[in-house]
Fold:
Amino acid sequence: MLKILFLFLMTGGIPVAIAMAGASLIYLFFVQSSPPFVVIHRMVSGIDSFPLLAVPFFILAGNLMNNAGITNRIFGLALALVGWLKGGLGHVNVVASVIFSGMSGTAIADAAGLGTVEVKAMKEHGYSSEFAVGVTAASATLGPIIPPSLPFVIYAMAANVSVGSLFLAGILPGLIMAALIMATVSYFAWRHGWGSDVRFSSSRFGKALIELAVMVGWPLGLWLLIKAGAPPRFTVFAAVVLLFLADWKFRFQAVLPMMTPVLLIGGMSAGLFTPTEGAIAACLWAMALGFFWYGTLKLKSFVKVCLDTVETTSTVLFIVAASSIFSWMLTATGVTAAIAAWVLGVTNEPWTFLLLANLLLLFIGCFLEPVAAITILVPILLPVVMELGIDPIHFGLVMVLNLMIGLLTPPVGLVLFIMARISRLSMERTTIAILPWFLPLLLALALITYVPGLVLWLPKMFF
Structure:
């Protein structure tokens, strides 16, 4: 009855959060004869969680980076690194998304922020709108896989797992996805006979390599010093000061913005702060760069960023609150237990369950926003995951990647809508443009699903 009410409201065009809360209210009031305030109580309880405090701060950090001129710096660095390859701007698109993923945490921010710059540049260099849209949409899925990640925070809260472990788990799969998307770009470049988009410059390329070396060497050296017994807080402070001095001396393009995920994961791994405190640190880092170091963030734009963050946070947390009452009702009415029993009756093999879960999540991703899908499905699927001995960190990566692919599919794929608006293509042409890019994404999904070591290697090393 509850599921029928939910589907009836959804098909009537009611937003998913209101449909979940409304179905639960109607079911409680008319079927179970329970007082309506139970719905309010459960919704408030659903968002009364310390880890969820990280959500608005991660959204704010991504918006600050997006509005502080960081996107152009990232694009310039990616251009110096891979713009001279055949199909250059396609590769630049992917590399820039990998870097920006370490700041935004959502696919939508990547598509709307960096995507605008990328599609415009690719069109100006003679690439078709369809190719520009396809590669930009595919690379936007990297946003929530490479840390920090808003869906990972929601999953960690729902599954009661470590946010830091999930963040580390996403690094290697994200790089594998980027490599597969770049291989697809190379195939198109070979097929159409495309050349490079910029001349190879040894000085620009060398400087970009130095930036990458700093990005890798700085946290590694910091970690070794802390492991050797150096005082963590003083060591981090001194290392940050040295980083700013190096940036002032060599005028790096994007080293300081790229340090955002390093600070987050390093701080959590070293025990300097919790994920929520890490999100606050990311905001302070973004404000320091935008206001004081680059001078690209002004008070007027900061107010707009804050208002946009309030709007986005309200939407996300309302979905979480509505999903919490809906998932509680599913559990209370025995639906989750019945589904778990049915799945275990069909198969006791983890690989078969993962195949069925992938098919279900890909289907659900076509209709539900990722945050809502995570909060609804985790209570249903997690008991089966634990029963079959599947690591919940591994399953979290599988779930989030499936739902990110769903953002590219009609009828409610948000990235699909954003790309159609940016490129000014019809929804039909945008959908057709994205179709070839499902191949690398589904191949990455298969690897992540059935080679759990790719996901769990880094978390086991650090945690």
